[in-house]
Amino acid sequence: MNRKPHVAVVGATGAVGIEMIETLEKRNFPVGKLTLLASARSVGKKLKFRGEEITVRELKKDSFGGIDIALFSAGGGISKEFAPIAAQAGCVVIDNSSAFRMDEKVPLVIPEINAEDMKWHKGIIANPNCTTAIALMALHPLHRAFSCKRIFASSYQAVSGTGAKAIAELERQVGQIVKGQPVTREVYPHQIAFNVLPHIDSFLPTGYTKEEMKMENEGRKIMHHPTFHASVTCVRVPVYRAHSIAVSAEFEKPVTVEAALAVLKKAPGLDVIDNPAKCEYPLPLYQSGKYNCAVGRLRKDCAFDNGLCFWVSGDQLLKGAALNAVQIAEELMK
Description:
Blueprint: E1 6-10, H1 15-26, E2 33-38, E3 46-49, E4 52-55, E5 57-58, E6 69-72, H2 76-88, E7 92-95, H3 111-114, E8 124-126, H4 130-146, E9 148-157, H5 164-178, H6 210-223, E10 229-236, E11 243-251, H7 257-266, E12 270-272, H8 284-287, E13 293-300, E14 307-314, H9 318-333
Parallel strand pairs: 1-2, 1-6, 2-5, 6-7, 7-8, 9-10, 12-13
Antiparallel strand pairs: 3-4, 9-11, 11-14, 13-14
Helix pairs in contact: 1-9, 4-6
């Protein structure tokens, strides 16, 4: 790998693309040259990187000559079409969409958990689902110590997970309600302001949504745990940024709150905020903009013989997307 790689961001003008550019800058990633690619309608827009303005170019089949690393966040369709082309051109693709996550030829990586899986990449490395990534930051250290059998979880997912248009929708609806105006909808099937929607992604014949199954399917692959079970309800909440997940986990080995806290306090990329007496627990409001996820509300699960309940919160544009992708790029540089 070139010591000062030529990096491309595909989907540069989207919510995650913008975070990718900022994260590369804030973490002093050794970018030799930055190319910004997007659809035709974004061409000509200018985005700042290290004090310079870079003009967005159109994503085309011949965009990847000379590029070392491409961070993709432009949706599954674009990834399916262009990631193999980029990989053929000799570029390592770090893809934020769901297109390649379950492909057995593509590593699915959270660097704090399974960085070693990157060794067998064939030009494409997948970034996990944002909710899965945030949940596993707390679950995996506990699994390593106590062997997790299954979890039951509910997510509390911010609108920024849907993209910039959803952030604008929540803002607009709050304004409409405050002014007593009729509420208009474009992004979600129902009003999101002052409401919660138990519906993220499309429904499967089982009644679960695709999003809900990602926790089990991706969790198995990332943790190398083929018998892991996860029953999840994913819920969209009127929060701008940062997802939270309430998890009840059952373990094979005996587990105490004290032993679990000792494990979590040592876990990389995770803060423990757990002092209920002082109303201290992770909050999406305070996790927004932070690289680390946070875990708290740890307690023995009273419905399992050998279980723990916990609450984990993290910025899904960062650990759930842009930060994880940049951390994968940092691992490539090692």
